[in-house]
Amino acid sequence: AQSVSQHNHHVILSEAASLELGCNYSYGGTVNLFWYVQYPGQHLQLLLKYFSGDPLVKGIKGFEAEFIKSKFSFNLRKPSVQWSDTAEYFCAVNPYNQGGKLIFGQGTELSVKP
Amino acid sequence: EAGVVQSPRYKIIEKKQPVAFWCNPISGHNTLYWYLQNLGQGPELLIRYENEEAVDDSQLPKDRFSAERLKGVDSTLKIQPAELGDSAVYLCASGADSADTQYFGPGTRLTVL
Fold it and tell me: What are the residue ranges in chain B where pLDDT is below 70?
């Protein structure tokens, strides 16, 4: 079955620390890839997306993600986190032949200590 | 530009009662999605509409769930009768088309007692 796996359920960092959240998916065909973020009390918002081209994509608020096709991975990174990055982060995959259907990972809760 | 609007934001009902959720997508968006999000999990697709046509409802439990999108704009999702296990957040999302980014609403948090 198609699935998306996020390696960490809860990550706790201090401000200015570097962040990397892992995401792996199980689907052999072409995919579009997304990271969504949900800040406390807010709705899901798109952080960044990869459709094609340069496998290193940059999103809002200094986030970036790298698509490594051979590893079926799409890890999210940020060199220096801020307290305002405290949120839940979801990786999602859209298999190319399934319309707009998004398959989400279970989410990673990030807590940044000031 | 207004985002995706959902109502109610919260709903508490007793089991076996019916419940309905409403979604108004972003103006001009042809594609509409309903997702279910259980506590501690990512959203799971229930149904996808292209205009007024349900093009993917394979994950919708049709014995108790139903949905409609009359005139290809607003949509309602109904549960009848509700069960304890239906307690979750029900999310609506829309996109210009199925290849477009999905924009999510705030969700309806359902509690079934």
Answer: 1
